[in-house]
């Protein structure tokens, strides 16, 4: 069976972009058709400094968010990255396969390191090699992510191909990015040219999965828009990033196409559309937030789920790491 891998960072809150761009698709892929493995990537989170107590809390809360969104720890392997040491071990090998120039081209590196690259952590630079290791340590074939991870997945393919070439093997598979749905790139509610992000300093820019109904409604009411009515055709959204974003969100939450939504709301003013969107968002998201807080009430249970997930993940990862060591020529590996 084809194997699915994906993950999210426990750095701040899960938001609507994570949910629509990634988590919802993870839940859909949790089926007879695929073996599904979903990770909380704490080793990636620490590429920028995290308060240790907050990191622990965010990791457990992320696990609660996965489950509340519909991932089932019986059907999927849910685990925390640092609890499966094979990720870091394979990442080292990939650090020796990947080239500096490949890493330098990554737009996320350029964005996150900013002007002062000399002062960014080495881990932030090597981030994509660890991500390739996450995927390839399971020989995963399908990786459901939002649009912003596309370049990293191309690099994962490059690493797999170069490793296979360097050692004359056909060992690591070439992975398929799965970037699907109406909302593969949810934008900030305050600025239609920026993606919705955990790290945006303004909490009004995003809807968190932990927001209550009141907070969701307020953020949508205050979302930036333009003064025009909604168009009845998709072309009418072209130069209106904020309007397009809200329509996209509506379509994704309601499992409709943009065209279907516009055929219903075309001609309406935002004063009328925003309350519709707020009601829909509350109806879809409030149950997730309620379930998350319920799950967070029993942290021992979350820790048990993560421990069990790590055990199952290692059963797959350990033999693949051994085989990799053998291919590379490490004494002691078979
Ligand atoms: P992270 O934690 O930033 O985001 C988790 C997932 O949410 C998607 N996403 C979005 N989708 C649509 N609109 C948005 N505004 C938006 N913001 C985030 C992301 O594309 C992602 O799918 N590097 C990854 C984590 C990772 C990973 C992996 C993913 C580590 N190893 C291996 C796949 C496979 C990250 O930082 O995601």
UniProtKB/TrEMBL annotation:
SUPFAM superfamilies: Nucleotidylyl transferase. Homodimer. Catalyzes the attachment of tryptophan to tRNA(Trp). Its main location: cytoplasm. InterPro entries: aa-tRNA-synth_I_CS, aa-tRNA-synth_Ic, Rossmann-like_a/b/a_fold, Trp-tRNA-ligase, Trp-tRNA-ligase_bac-type, Trp-tRNA_synthetase. L-tryptophan binds at residue 134. It catalyses: tRNA(Trp) + L-tryptophan + ATP = L-tryptophyl-tRNA(Trp) + AMP + diphosphate + H(+). A motif ('KMSKS' region) lies at residues 195-199. It is found in: Cytoplasm. The lineage of its organism: Bacteria, Pseudomonadati, Pseudomonadota, Alphaproteobacteria, Rhodobacterales. A motif ('HIGH' region) lies at residues 10-18. Its EC number is 6.1.1.2. This is Tryptophan--tRNA ligase. NCBIfam families: trpS. Keywords: Aminoacyl-tRNA synthetase, ATP-binding, Cytoplasm, Ligase, Nucleotide-binding, Protein biosynthesis. HAMAP family: Trp_tRNA_synth_B. ATP binds at residues 9-11, 17-18, 146-148, 186, 195-199. It comes from the Bacteria. GO terms for molecular function: tryptophan-tRNA ligase activity.
């Amino acid at each position: 069976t084809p194997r699915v891998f994906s993950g999210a960072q426990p750095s701040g809150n899960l938001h609507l972009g994570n949910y629509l761009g990634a988590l919802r698709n993870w839940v859909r892929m949790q089926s007879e058709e695929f073996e599904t493995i979903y990770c909380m990537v704490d080793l990636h989170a620490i590429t920028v400094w995290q308060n240790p107590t907050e990191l622990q809390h965010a990791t457990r809360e992320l696990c609660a968010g996965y489950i509340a969104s519909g991932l089932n720890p019986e059907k999927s392997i849910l685990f925390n990255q640092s609890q499966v040491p094979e990720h870091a071990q394979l990442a080292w090998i990939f650090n020796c396969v990947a080239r500096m120039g490949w890493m330098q081209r990554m737009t996320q590196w350029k964005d996150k390191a900013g002007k002062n690259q000399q002062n960014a952590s080495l881990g932030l630079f090597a981030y994509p090699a660890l991500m390739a290791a996450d995927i390839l340590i399971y020989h995963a074939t399908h990786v459901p992510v939002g649009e912003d991870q596309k370049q990293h997945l191309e690099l994962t393919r490059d690493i797999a191909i170069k490793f296979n070439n360097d050692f004359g093997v056909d060992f690591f598979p070439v992975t398929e990015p799965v970037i699907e749905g109406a909302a593969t790139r949810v934008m900030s509610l305050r600025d239609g040219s920026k993606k919705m992000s955990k790290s945006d300093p303004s909490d009004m820019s995003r809807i968190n999965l932990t927001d209550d109904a009141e907070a969701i409604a307020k953020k949508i009411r205050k979302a930036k828009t333009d003064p025009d009515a909604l168009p009845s055709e998709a072309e009418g959204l072209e130069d209106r990033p904020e309007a397009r974003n809200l329509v996209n969100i509506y379509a994704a939450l309601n499992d409709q196409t943009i065209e279907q939504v516009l055929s219903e709301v075309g001609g309406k003013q935002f004063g009328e559309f925003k309350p519709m969107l707020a009601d829909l968002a509350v109806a879809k998201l409030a149950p997730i937030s309620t379930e998350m807080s319920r799950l967070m009430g029993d942290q021992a249970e979350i820790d048990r789920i993560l421990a069990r997930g790590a055990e199952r993940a290692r059963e797959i990862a350990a033999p693949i790491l051994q085989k990799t060591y053998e291919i590379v020529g490490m004494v002691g590996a078979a």
